[in-house]
Here is the input.
Amino acid sequence: MTVARSLSEPSVYGHSVAGMRVLVTGAVGFIGSHIVEELVAAGHEVVALDVLLPAVHSDAGAARMRLPPGVDLIEADVRNEGTVRVALAGVDAVCHQAAMVGLGVDMGDAPLYAGCNDLGTAVVLSAMADAGVRRLVLASSMVVYGEGRYDCRKHGAVSPGPREQEDLAEGRFEPLCPHCRAVLTPGMVRENAPFDPRNVYAATKAAQEFLASAWARAVGGKVAALRYHNVYGPRMPLDTPYAGVAAIFRSALSMGRAPAVFEDGGQRRDFVHVRDVAAANVAALAWTADAPVGGARAFNVGSGTPRTVGELAAGLAVAVGGPEPVVTGQFRLGDVRHVTASSDRLRSELDWRPRVGFADGLREFAAVSVG
Here is the structure.
């Protein structure tokens, strides 16, 4: 349920609220639907657009019911330029969430990912240029970094290459210094870290940022690219090939199975609750009002507290009351070992703070019905 605020009331994140008309793509998705609720609660008018992909929305009727009363849904693909142009009528800003997510199944998914994510973004940007809409919040991802930040005792900050299959097969999971092969110490990655996408999805997210940056320079637009870390919470797709690790563990527990944890469970991630991500989007929209013209700025969106995949599995098992996780030692080539966010820029420049603690978020997620 959403709670209406007056247009003059400041948001809980410290930004003054001015009523805008905002187009949200991917509006009934996991993250998009929470953003729509947050925007409506802040007094904004929302135009919702979503294609309702069957791979993501097995029950389209239930997905449509996620939208608050008074928010109409345009059911269309973002690659349909004519429909996007209609949706942009009278719009002040765009919150672009529509994308294929997850690592996919295999390289056969590459055309679908590139089509949905990159061609779709190009169509939206082209239509925005013609419509005179100059404010964009883009859903990006921490996957653009590849591996996170690492330090070697001898060589300082280093960038490890992809882990070798032989090392992984022998249970040597930690990245090694490319100079001396010492085990590296992971740290917090910041927005100035270079891109190093390790899979097709990551490459498409990097391309989305480049497209948005080029658009901003060409038309005098303003872009906030939000690099989401591991988002979890209510409405997360649980039973698709594209599900995230939290959803995979939750699905296993719902069937009475122990979560299967790859490698040794020590992979470090930053798990951030979906409502905190939605609030970051609303804060970013407010930021674009006074942002420099013709510029794009990236913001990591994470809790700021690293957790391991093993901790996530164990916490969910306790919350659900299911079997303890099983550490399998299995691995996937291309998976990154550690990537955790510094969200200092988001906190200082957008006055944002995560509000949902890890334990509380897991208890809520454990209560989500499955099936």
